Amino acid sequence: MNRVARAIVAAVLLAGASTGMASETRELHLPGRTDVSIAIEPAKGDSLLLWLPSGIPVASHDADIARRIAALGIEVWRPDVLDAHFLPNLESSLAQVPDGDIVALIDAARATGKRVALLAAAHAAALALRGAHAWQAQHPGDRALVGAILLHPYLYLGPPQPGRDAVFHPVVHSTSLPVVIVQPGNSPTRFRVDALRAALEQGGARVHVELLAGVRDRYYFRADATPAEDAEAAHLPARLKDALDGMLAGNEQAGPRPAQTPPAPSAPATGAPPVNHGLQPYEGDPSAPTLALAGLDGRRYDLARYRGRVVLVNFWASWCPPCVREMPSMQRLKQQLRGKPFSILAVNTAESPQDVSAFLTRHGIDLPVMIDTDGSTIKRWKVFVFPTSYVIDTEGRIRLGVYGEVAWDSPSVVEKIEALLPAPR
After folding, report:
1. Cα–Cα 20 to 30 A to 145, which of 22, 298, 304, 370?
2. What CATH class has 3-249?
3. 378 contacts 315 by C-beta, under 8 angstroms
4. Whole-model pTM?
5. What is the mean pLDDT of residues 118-131?
């Protein structure tokens, strides 16, 4: 046990004895003369969750969940590694946290004598796996780190561009820890989770996926949470305990593989979330993939039959707030371009026709809507974020693309679309 680990363990044990297992905050000295503040929820059990920050300001929600996890006998440490480096509480900051910070935190947690697992959400999943890989490399054969639990993980290298394949962070292919993925069903990444599982298994990881039907990413702290999301949030501590118990029961790990060199990404390898730059010229293969699906009205829609018209193809879901916000502007765009060779095809993903019809009626939306029942269409169109939209020209080529919300009736957007319309005869 090193000096840093002994110091923090002594402080934690002393505080726990004097406060009756009350919540506490301690400082840990990290490499590079950096101190990190750790919010600790002590517990008498023999396991410890090291919960890394998500880069989203939800500390009050995390604190409540941590207390409920501790009540189940699992100690929880929440280190503020972003503040330790004077980084803003943003997802994009996570890529700047050194692997050594996580190594030191695992060492300190391990020095308590408890079995340690990492817990991370969204973009913090890459930070967790990076730190775990570095720790394993320094501690070959040590089984104190039992695995990682990843909540709706986002493990792509750089922001994916519309129509291009996203590249997994190289640590995905180098992870040999057991991994539990808690994947909300109402998420575009739901249809990519099998590819993520396969990539992790290439590195020797034993992967278990829990698919949560009817909830969205970040369901456990959303201000607009549905009753189903509130119920699942209440169950989260028990779900995490079950995941950790499963890891402890089968803690068999291979040694870490060397970090692989990934293919050259199409964007800087920051690990940052996608940034919406608005409707932009499309730079991928302009050939539009097949799009032929049944519509809510019983008709079968086929993009190939729209030659000679400019077509806006929009991928959306009713549980996606940005999709909901932009759809009225899409309806207004339809009215504004009425009588011109322009069409809108809205592709909904995996919702029931009844729910979609009710949504459209409630919001006064009158657009052709097709249902991608199994996610095969969004895979073919390389959709990683909702909403994602493409504008197809009269020859069937993709000319414009955007991920994220757009004011479709704004003058700048209308001008770009009208520039693709054929000249009146």
Report:
1. 22
2. alpha beta
3. yes
4. 0.81
5. 96
* Per-domain residue ranges of the chain: 3-249, 280-418
**pLDDT per position as a tens digit, 163-219:** 777 889 999 999 999 999 999 999 888 888 999 999 999 889 999 999 999 999 989
Name the residue among 147, 78, 140, 149 with its Cα closest to residue 116: 147
pLDDT tens column, 291-342:
999 999 999 999 999 999 999 999 999 888 899 999 999 999 999 999 999 9
Q: What is the largest CA-CA distance in the chain?
A: 86
- Mean pLDDT of the 126-143 span: 95
280-418: CATH, from 3.40.50.150, 3.90.25.10, 3.40.30.10, 3.30.365.10: 3.40.30.10
Q: Is 60 helix (H, G, I), strand (E, B) or coil?
A: helix
Cis status, amide bond into 387, omega within 30 of 0: yes
SS3 assignment, position 344: strand
Q: Which DSSP string do the residues of 100-152 spell out, in sequence order? A: HHHHHHHHHHHTTTSEEEEEEETTHHHHHHHHHHHHHHHSTT--SEEEEEEES
SS3 of 241-308: HHHHHHHHHCCCCCCCCCCCCCCCCCCCCCCCCCCCCCCEECCCCCECCCCEEEECCCCEEEHHHHCC
User: Does pLDDT of 270 surpass 80?
Assistant: no
Per cent of the chain over pLDDT 90 is 69
| Contact yes or no for 48/119 (Cβ under 8 A) | no
Asked if 119 contacts 151 with a C-beta cutoff of 8 angstroms, the reply is: yes
> What region does 412 belong to: left with phi over 0, alpha with psi -120 to 50, or beta?
alpha
> Is it the case that residue 56 has pLDDT exceeding 90?
no
**Are 3-249 and 280-418 equal in CATH topology?**
no
- Which tokens is 195 given? 């590819």
Q: Which residue has the tokens 């052709």?
A: 368
3-class DSSP assignment, residue 169: coil
CB-side neighbour CA atoms (13 Å) of 346: 25
